[in-house]
Amino acid sequence: MVLNEDIKQQLEQYLTLLESDIVLKADLGEGEDSQKVKAFLDEIAAMSDRISVSETSLKRQPSFLISQKDKDYGIEFSGLPLGHEFTSFILALLQVSGRAPKVDQEVIDRIKKIDKPLHFETYVSLTCHNCPDVVQALNIMSVLNDQISHTMIEGGMFQAEVTSKGIMSVPAVFLNGEEFSSGRASIEQLLEKIEGPLSEDAFADKGLYDVLIVGGGPAGNSAAIYAARKGLKTGLLAETFGGQVMETVGIENMIGTLYTEGPQLMAQVESHTKSYNVDIIKAQLATAIEKKETIEVSLANGAVLKAKTVILALGAKWRNINVPGEETFRNKGVTYCPHCDGPLFEGKDVAVIGGGNSGLEAALDLAGIAKQVYVLEFLPEFKADKVLQERALSTANVTLLSNVATEDIIGGDHVEGLHYTDRQTGETHYLDLEGVFVQIGLVPNTAWLKESGIALNERGEIQVDKHGMTSVPGIFAAGDCTDAAYKQIIISMGSGATAAIGAFDYLIRN
C-alpha cells in the first residue's frame, strides 16, 4: 500500500468530481521504483470506475501519462507524485478529465493564443514546497493548449539525470531540452517568460485608484481587503503573489489555526482577497513612485499606474552574504531553501551560513540527508535558541564554527568549497563542499525607493507613523519592509489593516 487510509479517504471525495474517463498510461520496468509506481497507479485505479491503467512507451521508466480515453496526450509524471506533489497529481486528474482550472480568464486567453510547440520538463523534489506552483502552472498550460506538453520529473528516482544536467536547485524547468527557469514562479511569470512582458496598452484603462497596494504578501492582502471593504477603488500590484510566506513550510502561530503551510495559507488569503472587488495585477514589477497631482507608480514595462493613495507592502528577501562566488554559483550549489534543495545534496558535504534559529534548523534538517554539515556564524556566539544549539552539538555530522567570516565560494561548474577566516586568530581555512545554504535573515525590498523621497532608516526599512503613513503624505507602508519592531505574519496582517484604515482616513480628510 502506497497511500495511507486518511489520504485515500480524502482522494475518494475528489475522484467523484471527475468529468470523463481517465487512462493512466504507464511505462514501467522490472525495478523497485517501477514496482512502487505500479502499486500507486493500481491503488488509484481501484478507487474509481472512471480510472483505468494501460501500458505505453514513454521517455523514462517509471513514468505515466494522464489522458482521456482515445487521446494520446495529457500530463506526464516521471516517478511518484507524492509529498508536496500529490496535490499536483490530483489536480491533473481533474483537469485532464475536463474540470476547468481555477485561473483568471485573462490568463486562459493568453495561454490559448500560444501557437508554437513547447515541451516543458520540471525537475522537483517531493519535499519542495515551491515546486507544486510551477508544476501545476505548466500542467494547466498543457491542458488548455495542445501545443504545450509537460512532464514532472521526481529527482529522487532520476538522480543520474539530475546529476548529468547539473541541477542543484529545484524546481528546475527545461523547455525543449534547454534550461528555462529555476525557482518558484507563478503562472503569470511563466507566461511572461514565454511570450514577453505585457505592453503598456494592457494597463491603459486602469483609471485612478483610491488605493493602490504594491505587494502581494500578508500585509498587502490585508490592506486590500480592508480598503475594498471601505468601498474604495482598490488595486493590488504584485511581482510575486504570496510574498516571503511562500517560502515558509510550517506555521504554528497563526492564531486560530493550529498548523498550516505558507503556500496553503496564501492560497486561502488570495481567495479571500478575490471575494472583494480588488483589481489584482500579478507578475509586474514596480520601479519608481512619485507624488504629483496623484501618486504615480511606474512599472518595468513602461506603464504607469495612478492612485490617490498608495500602500507599500514590499516585504523582504533573503539577505546575501555578498562574497565572491555567491552570485556565480546561485542555483549551482548556493541556495537559500534547505527544504526545497536539501534532497539534492544527499551524501554530500554542505555548509550553512548563519547561526540563528533558521540556520540551526536548516543544519538539523540537512543532517539527515547530507554526509557532513558545517555551520558558520560570524559572531563569537550562536544566536539560536539554546535547545537548537544543544541538538546541533549532539548531532554527530554537524560541526559548529563561530567567530568566523566567509571569504569566498569557489568551484567550476558548481560549488566545490569555500574559504573562511577565524576572526580571533586571523587564520584562513578551506572547506571542501558541494552546497552552501545561506540563512542570515532578511533585507527589505526597498532599494528602488532611494530616490523617492520616502524616508528610510539605516537598515533600509520604511519609516512609518502610528497610522502607517510614510514621510510622504498619501503614501503608506506595511509589513516587513517597515521599521516595525517585529517581523511576523500576523503583525504584517495587522499593519496592512492599519495602513488601509489610515489611507481611508487620509482620503476623507483630504
TrEMBL record:
<keyword id="KW-0676">Redox-active center</keyword>
<dbReference type="InterPro" id="IPR050097">
    <property type="entry name" value="Ferredoxin-NADP_redctase_2"/>
</dbReference>
<comment type="subunit">
    <text>Homodimer.</text>
</comment>
<protein>
    <submittedName>
        <fullName>Alkyl hydroperoxide reductase subunit F</fullName>
        <ecNumber>1.8.1.-</ecNumber>
    </submittedName>
</protein>
<dbReference type="InterPro" id="IPR044142">
    <property type="entry name" value="AhpF_NTD_N"/>
</dbReference>
<comment type="similarity">
    <text>Belongs to the class-II pyridine nucleotide-disulfide oxidoreductase family.</text>
</comment>
<dbReference type="Pfam" id="PF13192">
    <property type="entry name" value="Thioredoxin_3"/>
</dbReference>
<keyword id="KW-1015">Disulfide bond</keyword>
<dbReference type="Pfam" id="PF07992">
    <property type="entry name" value="Pyr_redox_2"/>
</dbReference>
<dbReference type="GO" id="GO:0016491">
    <property type="term" value="F:oxidoreductase activity"/>
</dbReference>
<feature type="domain" description="FAD/NAD(P)-binding">
    <location>
        <begin position="209"/>
        <end position="494"/>
    </location>
</feature>
<dbReference type="InterPro" id="IPR023753">
    <property type="entry name" value="FAD/NAD-binding_dom"/>
</dbReference>
<keyword id="KW-0274">FAD</keyword>
<dbReference type="InterPro" id="IPR036188">
    <property type="entry name" value="FAD/NAD-bd_sf"/>
</dbReference>
<feature type="domain" description="Thioredoxin-like fold">
    <location>
        <begin position="124"/>
        <end position="194"/>
    </location>
</feature>
<dbReference type="InterPro" id="IPR012336">
    <property type="entry name" value="Thioredoxin-like_fold"/>
</dbReference>
<dbReference type="InterPro" id="IPR008255">
    <property type="entry name" value="Pyr_nucl-diS_OxRdtase_2_AS"/>
</dbReference>
<dbReference type="InterPro" id="IPR036249">
    <property type="entry name" value="Thioredoxin-like_sf"/>
</dbReference>
<keyword id="KW-0520">NAD</keyword>
<keyword id="KW-0285">Flavoprotein</keyword>
<keyword id="KW-0560">Oxidoreductase</keyword>
<dbReference type="InterPro" id="IPR044141">
    <property type="entry name" value="AhpF_NTD_C"/>
</dbReference>
<dbReference type="InterPro" id="IPR012081">
    <property type="entry name" value="Alkyl_hydroperoxide_Rdtase_suF"/>
</dbReference>
